[in-house]
């Protein structure tokens, strides 16, 4: 394990991307005033997310599983080593990986609409 940085994430992020469309699950850290101010400052658009619908978060069902499999069994000496490995993994993903995730989101949203906002199952 590596030592946790004492700087907040926002302070460590040197030049955040502008115009990002972000979907999150409205958890308390995501909806906190400080987070909302940061998102507004950098013009990140927030996609709405129905309560109790984890299937509608591509990070939950499409990203984290493959990432966990990739990182499984690895150990990192420093936070920078981990960041380097993450960047390498993302840089080597095929565009189809992201296309599948986005298309899954669209079909999931349609199911949610068809169910009038009720829980969506895969």
UniProtKB/TrEMBL annotation:
Entry-linked InterPro entries: RNaseH_sf (IPR036397), Transposase-MT_Hybrid (IPR052709)
Molecular function per GO: nucleic acid binding
Coiled-coil ranges (or none): none
Protein name: Histone-lysine N-methyltransferase SETMAR
Species: Plakobranchus ocellatus
Taxon lineage: Eukaryota, Metazoa, Spiralia, Lophotrochozoa, Mollusca
């Amino acid at each position: 394990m590596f030592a946790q940085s004492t700087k907040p994430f926002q302070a460590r992020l040197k030049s955040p991307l502008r115009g990002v469309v972000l979907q999150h699950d409205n958890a308390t850290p995501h909806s906190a005033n400080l987070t909302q101010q940061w998102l507004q400052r950098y013009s990140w658009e927030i996609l709405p997310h129905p309560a109790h619908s984890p299937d509608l978060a591509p990070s939950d069902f499409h990203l984290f599983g493959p990432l966990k499999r990739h990182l499984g069994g690895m150990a990192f000496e420093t936070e920078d080593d981990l960041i380097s490995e993450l960047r390498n993994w993302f840089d080597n993903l095929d565009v189809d990986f992201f296309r599948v995730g986005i298309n899954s989101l669209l079909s999931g949203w349609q199911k949610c609409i068809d169910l009038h906002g009720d829980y969506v199952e895969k």
